[in-house]
Design a protein that fits this description.
By secondary structure, the protein is an all-alpha fold. It has one domain (3-240). 46% of the residues lie in helices and 0% in strands. It contains eight helices and no strands. It has helices at residues 3-17, 51-71, 77-89, 116-119, 137-158, 165-173, 186-206, 228-234. Helix 6 packs across helix 7. It is globular and about 40 Å long.
Length: 242
Amino acid sequence: MEPITAIILAAGALMVTGRKRKSVTSPAPGVSGDGNYSPTKDPNAPKKGDPVRVEMAIEIRRMSVWYSSRYNSMPLLADYLTVVAFIESRFGPSAINPEVSSNPENAARGLFGMRPRTAFRGSIKNLTSQPNLLLDPKWAFVTALYGVWSACNRVHSESPIPPDWASVRRWWASYSLASDFEYEKEHSKVNTERLLSGIEKCNNNYGTNINPSFINSPVMGWGNFPGMDVILQDYGLGGNVS
């Protein structure tokens, strides 16, 4: 059995035996401290680490839970984006890939390490000329959310297998990997191994309690995504598109 197969099977076993997650609600996006959202009610919220980065991680989870609750969509979004933000930026919104010196327009940046040409697509494609919008946590979040939907939509169009969170992460690396459920391409294996390693490190370094099995879970309710124009209004960014 190949190592990646063993890892995925082990994660699947954890999914069967893992305990249920508690549900939480959140305030309106970007309104920290309001509502009944509390990291103490969220078993997967960070519990240690640099306070500024911990607060950023909590804000990512707050925005995610608000979306999931409002649209009955992507209930594991908070876990996925927490891990991706840890891997890509260690919860630092101003992170920029050193490639920016030679590729200023499309170097990865922001909380989720997205490239502007990947982040700004469809109705917001014109914003590729403003790549540093991704350094704003709200813009980073809404474009990452759009990315999750785009990944799921691609898998849906290519494969009879429902999109799962591992396939979303493969899309993050290369669109063509999204439907590689058989791990025929080496980079698909490497991508999932890095995702699992990121979960372990995030749990160890920040005290999160994210079950690695979630990567095998279908992205439930992804089709309820209401469209980017609605999301921009929801998160107070509708008037900033030009």
